[in-house]
Automatic annotation (TrEMBL):
It catalyses: 3'-dephospho-CoA + ATP = 2'-(5''-triphospho-alpha-D-ribosyl)-3'-dephospho-CoA + adenine. GO terms for molecular function: ATP binding; triphosphoribosyl-dephospho-CoA synthase activity. GO terms for biological process: prosthetic group biosynthetic process. InterPro entries: CitG, TriPribosyl-deP-CoA_syn_CitG. Its EC number is 2.4.2.52. Belongs to the CitG/MdcB family. Transmembrane segments: none annotated. This is Probable 2-(5''-triphosphoribosyl)-3'-dephosphocoenzyme-A synthase. Gene3D superfamilies: Triphosphoribosyl-dephospho-CoA protein. The keyword Hydrolase does not apply.
Amino acid sequence: MSINYGFCEYISEIAIKSMLLEVAATPKPGLVDRNNSGAHKDMDFYTFMESSASQVYTFYNCALEGLKFEGKENKELLNIIRPIGIEGENKMFNATRGINTHKGLIFSLGIIAAAAGLQHKETKKQKMDIDDICHKVKDIAEGIVSRELGKLDNKDSLTYGEILYKNHGIKGIRGEAESGFSTVRYHSLPIFRELMKGEGNLNDNLVQVIFHLMTITEDVNILGRHGVDALEYVKSKAKEVLALGGIFTEKGKKKILEVDKDFIYRNISPGGSADLLAVTLMLYLLENYS
Ligand SMILES: CC(C)(COP(=O)(O)OP(=O)(O)OC[C@H]1O[C@@H](n2cnc3c(N)ncnc32)[C@H](O[C@H]2O[C@H](COP(=O)(O)OP(=O)(O)OP(=O)(O)O)[C@@H](O)[C@H]2O)[C@@H]1O)[C@@H](O)C(=O)NCCC(=O)NCCS
Ligand SMILES: Nc1ncnc2[nH]cnc12
């Protein structure tokens, strides 16, 4: 079987482009962007640049494993790409001198890269069918919540995601992947597609979409740091911004800057929504290959 290594290069290129354009989108409340570092004292715009650049082979190799896959069930692919993702996390920590900028996003984009490899193996096309990609993501992540979060009693130190599942049944990033990124597939991506047909520029369209994401994302970063009340607060603020027209009106822009200051003061960082914004862009780029 001849392997199209050029396809893997392409997947890596657009995954890293999604990471870079997400952090560059400005202004994003409580998040690192070109204005400020949001509710983060340990990272800035350049930390995200360095982290993104360190992931070239993570997504290349995930796509390659999808292309090469000869297993019976797509869920077998998760254990094949997991070590690649863990190596990617190590490269991230090395590049950022120990700061977690993209642990979640490496997981999300890595699974999508593998799903893209699976599809390309079937179709030999670079223009991707996104519904099929999300279906393949669901297959690859099948059972991850119960398998990884269902048995935590003997674990010593738990992550935010593990604590939230144990105490509240919050599924976090694993639930999102197991659903085939349904928040993106059925909510943020259709909105982004429509915005990209309009007059708005890429930056403003990305900013507008993160506010739509903030109204519905079960954001583990917010829940982990502050709890449910803070998540409801974030959702209400995002709705207020959108009700004023968001980035596309002067009143909306003014409100966004106020909310950014407010989230920084409250140490609120919607990192989960930021990751889903990058996933939204990745899927958009996959279906708009030219
Ligand atoms: C599968 C794992 C990635 C799971 O790791 P973990 O147990 O930590 O999972 P969660 O706690 O559930 O969330 C992990 C990160 O996922 C992002 N996220 C949060 N909510 C959502 C959501 N609803 N949907 C999608 N993604 C979500 C978020 O990541 C982003 O934020 C992090 C940076 O923000 P920060 O606040 O600084 O984060 P912390 O430093 O953790 O908090 P503080 O101490 O500062 O307060 C950054 O990671 C962003 O990406 C969540 O943090 C992992 O266990 C795993 O298996 N990894 C191996 C790799 C792998 O399997 N790869 C597969 C193919 S490559
Ligand atoms: N721009 C951003 N700021 C803070 N955390 C993030 N996680 C992913 N993107 C982020």
